[in-house]
Write a structure and sequence with these properties.
The chain is an alpha+beta fold. The chain contains 4 helices and 9 strands.
Length: about 230
């Protein structure tokens, strides 16, 4: 049974179509530099450069970041990192205190499929990451010295301090009961003696005065009577 030329031609066209479809599918799954992107962001007050890999084939790629200066590499940022992308995207981050409007070159090496830079180069935002506001200064405390726990002994005076014995001797005695204080007259009697003979002496003296006065009186009468004769 012979195959007609028409049938051969149809099979050839189908095979070519299938090959093209497989070629397009393979290219679609192949790792490509266009599947990589980068941006400069902030993590609080820290600067970060983030690279995203959206390679659906999950080909392992090595990412290296360089700071550019006048068209040349000024330094490498951190160490190179590896990433396996996905259709949704996988990210790797490089901590970098980037300055506004700085330029970074991001190089991608993925097996034998990709070995080039992300274009164009990354330019950082025109505003740097905000630094944390400094904490308020503490209110100055009172600088006056705190009182010492032990009181400083007073300086010794030139005038001697009276002893407790002398002070107690000069202070008036206080009575501890309700008995009345003795009268002043009693005190004088105590000094002269309540049982002295003062009253008797005074009586005898009075009697002598009376007797002397009587004697003078009678003497004067007798002298007058004598003068009358």
């Amino acid at each position: 049974m012979s195959i007609s030329r028409r049938s051969v031609r149809i099979l050839g066209v189908a095979s070519a179509t299938a090959a093209l479809a497989l070629g397009f599918a393979g290219n679609a799954l192949a790792c490509n530099i266009s599947e990589f992107s980068a941006e400069a962001t902030c993590d609080g007050s820290d600067g970060v450069i983030t690279v995203t890999d959206k390679d659906a084939s999950a080909t392992e790629a090595t990412i290296t970041v360089f700071l550019e200066n006048n068209g040349g590499d000024a330094k490498q940022v951190g160490t190179a990192q590896t990433v396996k992308g996905s259709k949704a995207g996988v990210t790797v981050s490089f901590t970098e205190a980037w300055q506004p409007n700085a330029t970074y070159r991001i190089h991608v090496k993925a097996s034998n499929k990709v070995d080039e830079d992300i274009t164009p180069n990354l330019t950082t935002p025109s505003k740097a990451c905000e630094t944390e506001s400094p904490s308020p200064s503490p209110t100055p405390s009172d600088t006056s010295p705190a009182p010492s726990d032990s009181a400083t002994p007073p300086a010794e005076s030139d005038t001697p301090t009276p002893s407790a014995k002398e002070s107690s001797s000069t202070a008036p005695a206080t009575t501890t009961d309700n008995a009345p204080s003795p009268a002043a007259g009693s005190s004088n009697l105590a000094e002269t003696g309540a049982n002295s003979n003062t009253g008797m002496i005074a009586g005898i003296a009075g009697a002598l005065v009376v007797v002397g006065g009587g004697a003078v009186y009678f003497g004067m009468r007798r002298r007058g009577a004598a003068n009358g004769r």
